[in-house]
Design a protein that fits this description.
- This protein is an alpha/beta fold.
- About 45% of the residues lie in helices and about 20% in strands.
- Strands 3, 4, 5, 6, 9, 10 and 11 form a seven-stranded mixed sheet that branches. A two-stranded antiparallel ribbon has the order 1-2. A two-stranded parallel ribbon has the order 7-8.
- α1 crosses α4 and α2 packs across α3.
- The radius of gyration is 24 Å and the shape is elongated.
Length: about 325
């Protein structure tokens, strides 16, 4: 069996399209189709239902599990011998939320590349809820995310603590009649959100990190959030700029506010701290392997040494 054909099949299974898989693999669609047909001939079973989108047969599902396991073991073998021979080359694939990547990745990669100049980096921007699946499918080597639910095949380590705050412009609070010295303002500053029943909100989709947190918290304060603006797969900076304009209040990680706004914009905002429940740990996640590539563990240890740079400055 040609091992390349196994890799090609995995890509087709992921993309559910010969054309997209061929493009990702940098080969022609005809070549890809020939490899899959030969593989089916060797196995004596159809692996794909050639519909739009493609579907896996039962045999295809079984073969995919073996192919993914083979890829993981082959990858682990190659990396273990790189460690043995101290010949560190290869590709480190890191998955991270778009906005968090803007804050965390540049200083990490500058230092990492100084120590590992022969390691190429591939950054995969994705929402937090999808990163575990990318790890399990072998599409990334390392995830940087909250990871509240950890699959059995994934190992995690702590990185740094992040805190969500409610961000609202002073002008919007003034329009709502919530001004410094008033009882509602004092209640708000203590984390009581009930004065915001009539406040418009800028909320991420309910399946995204700050959206999950925001909707749940507002409901617990008896507020039925009807977002004036609902954002999908955008950066936190977009939400913050809209909040500065007075379009609505939003939830954001505190450590992402200062890098996203000018001092003048930041001065127009009130930040409402929401207590211990608003704090969560950002983790590293990686697949459990017979041998863990030293490049991954060294990257994690280096990042942990720098973790203070990524927490919100008081």
């Amino acid at each position: 069996m040609n091992f390349s054909s196994m890799d090609y099949f995995v890509m087709v299974a992921r993309e559910r399209s010969f054309s997209r898989a061929a493009e990702r693999l940098h080969i022609t669609q005809q070549t890809l189709s020939a490899h899959i047909a030969k593989l089916e001939g060797e196995l004596g079973a159809k692996l794909l239902v050639r519909s739009i989108p493609l579907e896996l047969t039962y045999a295809g599902e079984v073969f995919l599990e073996y192919a993914l396991d083979f890829q993981r073991r082959a990858n682990s073998l190659e990396r273990e011998f790189q460690d043995i021979t101290e010949n560190q080359r290869g590709l480190l694939r890191i998955g991270i939320n778009y906005t968090r990547g803007d804050i965390v990745i540049p200083p990490l990669l500058i230092r990492f590349q100084q120590e590992y100049p022969n390691i190429a980096i591939r950054l995969v921007g994705e929402i937090n809820t999808n990163l575990s699946a990318l790890l399990e499918n072998g599409e990334i080597d390392l995830a940087i995310a909250p990871l509240p639910v950890v699959p059995p095949a994934v190992q995690t380590e702590d990185f740094y603590q992040e805190e969500y705050v409610l961000v609202v412009s002073k002008a919007l609070l003034n329009r709502l009649g919530i001004t410094p010295g008033m009882a509602d303002f004092v209640r708000l500053q203590s984390g009581d959100l009930s004065p915001l029943r009539d406040c418009p909100f800028i909320l991420a989709a309910q399946q995204e990190g700050n959206g999950i947190f925001g909707y749940d918290l507002l409901r617990r304060w008896g507020i039925v959030p009807i977002p004036k603006i609902e954002v999908h797969h955008t950066t936190v900076r977009s939400e913050l700029v809209l909040a500065v304009s007075g379009m609505g209040a939003c939830f954001a990680p505190q450590n992402m506010i200062r890098p996203s706004l000018t001092p003048q914009q930041e001065a127009q905002l009130e930040l409402i701290h929401l207590g211990e429940e608003a704090r969560h740990m950002i983790h590293f996640g990686y697949l459990k392997q017979p041998h863990q590539w030293s490049v991954i563990t060294d990257f994690i240890h280096m990042a942990q040494e720098m973790s203070g740079e990524f927490e919100a400055k008081k």
